[in-house]
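DM from R.C. (forwarded with permission)

"hey, sorry to bug you on a friday — could you get me a structure for this? deadline for the figure draft is monday and I only need the backbone to look sensible"
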Amino acid sequence: MQNLKTHFHPEVTTLENKTVFTRLATRSIAIKEQNILLLYTERYEDYSLPGGGLDTDEDKIAGMMRELSEETGATDIQNIQPFGIYEEYRPWHKSGFDVQHMISYCYTCDIGEELGTPNLEHYETKNGMKAVWINIHDAIRHNKQTMASSDKKGMSIERETFLLELIANKIQ
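My reply, with the result:
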């Protein structure tokens, strides 16, 4: 799969003498015309692709389908195709490591018309996360506004906005 970008968070200025934790994740891209299935998170005021960390030894496609279904209630997931990899280095604020190396494997897919009931984790519900179909250009504008003016923005918004812009360029 093609590497789309490698991003270093501003707090990660070097990997020299740092302990690095690698986390593998997946991101799902489900599009219907100009609309895309995203997660809106109230806490961070942003839109993001459904996805998350892979379990130990979990197959990437199986993990992508699991995360998409859990976070959005999507069913009948098919026509899965690789889109690319987004790699990032972020500060890690838990004991044992200084930096998190996140590798996100992104896939396009088709899903069934109706979304079922999501099975969100407690912290996702607490953060106000919900699945929405939204015009991709509106989501990009919203994220850019959040990046420019909100003190709530999370570390993932730059990744998500970069990916949304790439996707938008391919569907025009």
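R.C.: lifesaver. Helices lie at 60-72, 122-126, 136-149, 157-171.
me: no worries. The two ends are 22 Å apart (CA to CA).
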